[in-house]
Amino acid sequence: MLKTLTVWNFALLEHVQVEFGEGLNILTGETGAGKSILIDALGAILGQRVSADAIRTGCDWLRVEAVFTLEDESLGLHELLSGQAIDDSEGMLIITRQVTKAGRSMVLVNGCHVTLTILKQIGAFLVDIHGQNENLALLKEESQFALLDQFDPDLTEALAGYKQIYTAWRDKQQEHKEKEQAAREYAQRLDMLRWQDKEISEAELKENEDEELDAEIRKLSHAEKIAGFVEESYNLLVVGAGGGQAVLAAVAKVKKNLEDMSRYDDSLENTYTMVEEAYISLQEAASDLRDYGESLEFQPARLDRLQSRMDVIDRLCRKYGATIADVLEHQQKVQQELLDIENYDDDMAQLEKEIAALEEKLRAKADNLTRLRQRAAEELSAAIGSQLTALGMLQAAFHIRVTPAEKFLANGTDNVAMYFSANPGEEEKLLSKVASGGELSRIALAIKTVAASRDSSVPSMVFDEIDTGIGGRTAQMVAERIALVAQYKQVLCITHLPQIACMADVHLYIAKTSAGDSTVTQVRPLTERERISEIARMASGVDVTTASLDNAKEMVSHAKLTKKNFAVKAKDE
Fold first, then answer.
1. What is the DSSP string of 242-304?
2. Are residues 313 and 227 in the same domain?
């Protein structure tokens, strides 16, 4: 439910904070005061597009902030918020939207940045705006399906079961189609796959073989250089070079000197130990160098064989993968595809068997769905027809028809359409073909009234320009329908009609004031006395008189009695 809406620099709204309550929140004021601007600001919170042109003259930015309390049953909203890592554990949602003159937009939900797309998805769980565009949306088939399928809990459950099997059936159909298409290329592809498998198999590749080959090729390619390094190093250690003393001989002399010195002073005993260990290590190093040098030989024939082997590996890696592991993985895929092709007939037979079994289940689910839809369509048509009668359309006929679609669709095997006739004797035709704007508005209100007690997915509803072109008894009936909806949901309603205003649980007055070159719109709640005066003004259209005040009091008194009866009815349901 919407608790507060705070607006900064949005058109005529310089800084306004509005507190909303449960039930019916009525917004009234003179024409041009800015009532629709407030609804536009709420629309910004719900993800609607906001142009930089909406920024108040002389300002660089606009901001709108709304606080919502969350209902326990808002499971879909909770899952959406969790997916965006937004914490709603305190049962509250604070949404902030800011737009700058440069056109940059920022959206925060409980302190987390989200995109406009996500904001629109969140807004769909919070507020349902009932206006001219929403009336036109009612004409779309998907909207009519949604209305019918949400009317009956059994139908909602049956649809979920159907969709689960439909998804599995559609996936199997797609798999069958892909295999059929692939079969046309099998003859040519088989030759290619067999050649690739043969080429890789004949190479007899081993994991990391290329690394071992590379190391040995480097060694054999530089055998002469390596031999030179070995000989020079061995000579320095053992023989000596350039007439100089060998390293081992020099270290042996140092060792002997330290050994002799120890007879007179043992303070260099540790030094002697280090020199002795160094002498032993150097002896081992010299021995290793000698053995390595004796084993080293230049083998041109082996080098050629290794390079040829490396060429084979490089060629396969260029064709099938960057490494030997990639080439072997490619071969596994090739072998699996070969196996699939060879098992094509068996796989297709199994697929067709599975598809037939799923179609049997799908048909049973679809038939049950059709039966439930037809039953729900009768009940819903009767309920909406009753509301249309209460809205002054005494001769109107309204029916929701469920007809076969003759194929499996995502939501069953049905077509759903609304049929309407405004006058007796006229054939019922598709709603989109015959309903006028005013009729469509009242039909939509009738639908909202019927659905309100069953639909808990969206806790708040906005009626924008619901009273356009109506008056008298029709206005009174529209007012009662809105008040009835407000027994189940929070309702925000802009109106110019006293019949609707007198039904308010919270009455907000919107006024425009000018000071110099500046114009500001303000919003404030009315006291009971102020409310009577405002309804009297709306009813009389002239200065408030004692008679108009008495009439306003009577309207409010009658409205309270009507709402009390609605509350009892809602409680019984």
1. TTPPPHHHHHHHHHHHHHHHTTT-GGGHHHHHHHHHHHHHHHHHHHHHHHHHHH----HHHHH
2. yes
pLDDT value for 22: 92
Domain extent at residue 34: 2-131+459-570
CATH code of residue 534: 3.40.50.300
Could you give the CA distance from residue 144 to residue 141 in angstroms, rounded to a whole number? 5
Angle, to 10 degrees, between the axis of helix 141-149 and the axis of helix 344-390?
80
Does 205 fall in a domain?
yes
- In this structure, the answer to whether residues 108 and 197 fall within a common structural domain is no
Q: How far apart are CA 64 and CA 4, in angstroms?
A: 11
**Cα separations in angstroms, 437 against 124, 139, 308:** 24, 12, 84
- What are the distances in angstroms from CA 217 to CA 297, 303, 322? 13, 6, 20
Q: Which amino acid is at 66?
A: A
The sign one gets for the Cα dihedral 538, 439, 454, 36 is negative
The verdict on 7 and 108 lying in the same domain is yes
Residue 394 in any domain: the answer is no
Take residue 292 and report the two structure tokens written for it. 């390595």
Q: How far apart are the first and last CA of the chain?
A: 21
> What does each C-alpha distance from 511 to 5, 24, 520, 523 come to in angstroms?
17, 20, 8, 7
DSSP helix, strand, coil percent of the chain (3-state; round to 5): 60, 20, 25
Q: Enter the DSSP assignment of 55.
A: B
> Do residue 243 and residue 333 come from a single domain?
yes
Domain boundary pick from 337, 372, 394: 337
Nearest to 370 by CA among 141, 139, 159, 170: 159
| Total domains in the fold of the chain | 2
Q: What is the pTM of this model?
A: 0.65
Query: What are the angstrom distances between the C-alpha of 509 and each of 30, 361, 418, 513?
Result: 9, 58, 38, 13
118 lies in the same domain as 210: no
Chosen domain end from 337, 365, 399:
337
Residues 100 and 228 placed together within one structural domain of the fold: no
Sign of dihedral through CA atoms 471, 476, 481, 482?
Answer: positive
Q: What is the mean pLDDT of residues 431-448?
A: 77
Give the integer Cα–Cα distance in Å for 441 and 136: 9
263: left (phi over 0), alpha (psi -120 to 50) or beta: alpha
Collapsing DSSP to helix, strand or coil, 206 comes out as coil
Of 50-64, 86-100, 450-464, 499-513, give the lowest mean pLDDT range. 450-464
**Any residues with CB less than 8 A from the CB of 161 and at least 6 apart, and which?**
365
Q: Tell whether 205 and 112 lie within a shared domain.
A: no
Question: Residue 98, Cβ neighbours under 10 Å: how many?
Answer: 18
Provide the 10 A C-beta neighbour count for residue 282. Answer: 17
* Pair (110, 231) in one structural domain: no
Number of C-alpha atoms within 13 angstroms, CB side, residue 196?
22
264: burial class by Cβ within 10 Å (0-12, 13-18, 19+)? exposed
- What is the arrangement of strands in the sheet containing 429-430, beginning at the earlier edge strand? 397-409, 412-421, 429-430
506-559 pLDDT, tens per residue? 999 998 887 777 778 888 999 999 999 999 988 887 678 888 899 999 999 999
